[in-house]
């Protein structure tokens, strides 16, 4: 063997690549005897053998490959040693559509090309494997200056690229799950949706059980159409809190859960990445993040349910007792998203002689302060009505009272007195939405007796009258029934006339309160709703008009 080649091989020591180079019959191949190789090829081969960095030298019409031990690792378990002294195109046939044009560019122009973290789907270890490489292809020239080969200096960056991508998946999963305002099912659904989009997950399935024996709930979600593993295995892993492998699926217990909550995550890894230590750690982190999110969500659900229950009990305690069956019907509904008591209220006051007083009001804000003001104003209004004052005089008394109680300003109130034998309605309003009368032949807004908000009205209050006919329904309500964000109050009142009036006219009195609220606020109400309905028909008459009695 030529002395230069022998000297170059000494740098390889006793490695397998050194042995292949020493024993290969170069003279019988396309490169010929190493003694005849051009100086630049000799220099490139010497560089290849003297460095531990992955290097492959390709030369001649077939771009015959000569590589070192660093490059050998890139060949996986299936291509080496057959790749040594083999054509570059044959060895990397599965990625030639991507790297072949780069070789052609170097051979044609003599200019180097450079790629960073280039994704390549290789078949180097018996399966299609996702890989990434940073590399440079440089021209190799013969002694006449003609480009005859390509020098490839490369670094596999697959581990770095995959680790960064998995970190992004975990981060995006955690961000999405902890932003969910729903329950455990919404968390499970969002988790499998995120995992379905991950390049590192072939399929996933989530199983969560929570609640006691009487309230046991099982939440389930999966990518694809069929289960990955039997449900019994998911339950076994969830309760046993140990990882179990079922074929190509690993089932992980969800961590960070309360004792009354168990859960499991089944994951089938993407087929283009080996199920190695890094992949197992990735799956374990997914299970941990999902467990954290489920635990936080269920804890928040319990807290919300408790606070909402306390809020509703406190709010209802501040409202008057349910009225006996008859002409008066009331309905109260707290804001869907609120955990605080609000400032909406109603009151129906028997005044004697078949006369009734009714007040509907709305204090600004939520919380105990608003509820306190509401309770004080309701009590004051009831006392004023019981002393024989009419609606306008009652509101004037509330004006004086509100000026002495900071925070009661800007309250809206409508007050009315109904004389049942005559059907005469007397009313006055302080910045409150118009009362609505719904009859068999249409509807009418009561626009009289208007005045400013409590404590801000300087002139004497006025009142107006309206004669209710048998079969009429009088509806008084707070603005939560009609207001929508970005929409004028006028539009909300028009919707009540077109959508709500038919409900008031036709629905059964046992359900109309809930039906009216649902018709007006199908997506839920961002504010409390209090409303009162008076049925002017004789007691016991079948008019189809009414509202559900307050619970």
TrEMBL record:
Keywords: Hydrolase. Residues 310-536 form the PPM-type phosphatase domain. It comes from the Bacteria. This is PPM-type phosphatase domain-containing protein. It comes from Luteimicrobium album.
């Amino acid at each position: 063997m030529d002395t230069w080649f022998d000297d170059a091989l000494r740098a390889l020591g006793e490695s397998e690549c050194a042995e292949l180079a020493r024993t290969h019959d170069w003279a019988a191949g396309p490169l010929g005897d190493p003694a005849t190789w051009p100086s630049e090829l000799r220099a490139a081969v010497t560089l290849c053998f003297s460095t531990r960095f992955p290097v492959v030298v390709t030369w001649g019409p077939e771009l015959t490959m000569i590589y070192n031990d660093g490059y050998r690792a890139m060949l996986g378990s299936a291509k080496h040693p057959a790749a040594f002294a083999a054509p570059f195109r044959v060895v990397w046939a599965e990625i030639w559509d991507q790297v072949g044009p780069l070789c052609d560019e170097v051979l044609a122009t003599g200019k180097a090309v450079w790629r960073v973290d280039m994704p390549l789907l290789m078949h180097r270890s018996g399966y299609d494997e996702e890989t990434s490489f940073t590399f440079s292809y440089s021209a190799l020239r013969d002694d006449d200056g003609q480009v005859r080969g390509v020098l490839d200096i490369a670094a596999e960056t697959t581990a770095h690229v995959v680790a960064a991508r998995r970190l992004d998946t975990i981060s995006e999963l955690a961000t999405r799950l902890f932003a969910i305002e729903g329950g455990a099912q919404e968390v499970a659904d969002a988790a499998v949706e995120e995992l379905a989009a991950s390049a590192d997950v072939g399929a996933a399935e989530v199983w969560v059980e929570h609640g006691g024996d009487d309230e046991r709930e099982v939440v389930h979600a999966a990518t694809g159409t069929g289960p990955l593993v039997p449900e019994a295995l998911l339950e076994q892993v969830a309760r046993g809190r140990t990882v179990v492998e079922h074929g190509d699926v690993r089932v992980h217990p969800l961590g960070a859960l309360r004792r009354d909550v168990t859960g499991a995550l089944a994951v089938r890894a993407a087929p283009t990445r080996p199920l190695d230590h890094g992949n197992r750690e990735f799956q374990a982190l997914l299970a941990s993040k999902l467990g954290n999110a489920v635990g936080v969500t269920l804890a928040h659900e319990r807290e919300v349910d408790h606070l909402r229950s306390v809020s509703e009990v406190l709010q209802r305690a501040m409202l008057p007792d349910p009225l006996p069956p008859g002409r008066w019907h009331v309905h109260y509904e707290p804001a869907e998203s609120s955990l605080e008591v609000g400032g909406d209220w109603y009151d129906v006051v028997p005044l004697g002689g078949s006369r009734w007083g009714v007040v509907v009001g709305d204090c600004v804000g939520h919380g105990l302060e608003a509820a306190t003001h509401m309770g004080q104003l309701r009590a004051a209004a009831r006392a004023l009505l019981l002393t024989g004052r009419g609606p306008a005089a009652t509101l004037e008394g509330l004006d004086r009272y509100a000026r002495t109680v900071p925070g009661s300003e800007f309250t809206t109130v409508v007050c009315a007195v109904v004389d049942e034998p005559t059907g005469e309605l007397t009313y006055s309003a302080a910045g409150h939405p118009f009362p609505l009368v719904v009859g068999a032949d249409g509807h009418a807004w009561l626009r009289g007796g208007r005045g400013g908000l409590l404590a801000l009205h300087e002139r004497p209050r006025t009142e107006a009258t309206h004669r209710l006919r048998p079969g009429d329904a009088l509806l008084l309500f707070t603005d939560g029934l009609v207001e929508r964000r970005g929409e004028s109050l006028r539009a909300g009142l028009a919707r009540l006339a077109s959508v709500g009036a038919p409900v008031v006219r036709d629905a059964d009195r046992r359900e109309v309160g809930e039906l009216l609220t649902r018709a007006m606020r199908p997506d839920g109400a961002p504010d409390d709703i209090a409303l009162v309905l008076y049925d002017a028909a004789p007691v016991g008459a079948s008019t189809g008009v009414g509202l559900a009695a307050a619970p």
